[in-house]
Amino acid sequence: MLDSFDINLYALVLPSLMAGLHLDQTTSGSIQSMMLLSAACGGIVFGVLADRWGRTRALMLSVLIYSIFTAACGFAGSALQLAVFRILLGLGMGGEWASGAALVSETWPDRHRGKALGFMQSSWAIGFIFAAAVNWFVQDVARLDWRAVFSSACCRRC
To answer: Which of 39, 57, 101, 107 has the fewest Cβ atoms within 10 angstroms?
Structure first.
């Protein structure tokens, strides 16, 4: 759900973000692609860390990184800063998914693991709904800009 929330939140704020930072479509799409590539790397890195430090510690660190750099996106003043924050956010996101999936599969009895992981995967739609609701409330109701959307997204994780 957290992954879907963030990925879809970026897409939902993209028009105002592009206007605010004067980004073209290629740059804004490239930033999201770099985030997704770093999420893949984060899954590998935090998978190794989880084996060394334990799943819970790796998960806590990845969520901390994920949260800090989600909020940092709201402070980006250029495409380069946004790209760096999104890449670091992606590392945390990948680690959160890898450690979280391992913890879910380890804590459920064998006969229910498939259902538990299926439920975890099906929460993608819930993440999109939350992203749409947060974006609507922050930008349309509260009349705040895209920066406030990223700040509120960070608070939701903490």
So the answer is: 107
CA dihedral 24, 30, 33, 37 (to 10 degrees): -150
**Whether this model's pTM surpasses 0.90:** no
From residue 53, give the alpha-carbon distance in Å to each of 40, 57, 76, 117: 20, 6, 32, 23
3-state secondary structure the chain: CHHHHHHHHHHHHHHHHHHHHCCCHHHHHHHHHHHHHHHHHHHHHHHHHHHHHCHHHHHHHHHHHHHHHHHHHCCCCCHHHHHHHHHHHHHHHHHHHHHHHHHHHHHCCHHHHHHHHHHHHHCHHHHHHHHHHHHHHHHHHCCCCHHHHHHHHHHHHC
Give residue-wise pLDDT tens across range 68-112. 999 999 999 999 999 999 999 999 999 988 888 878 778 888 888
Tokens of 77: 């003043």
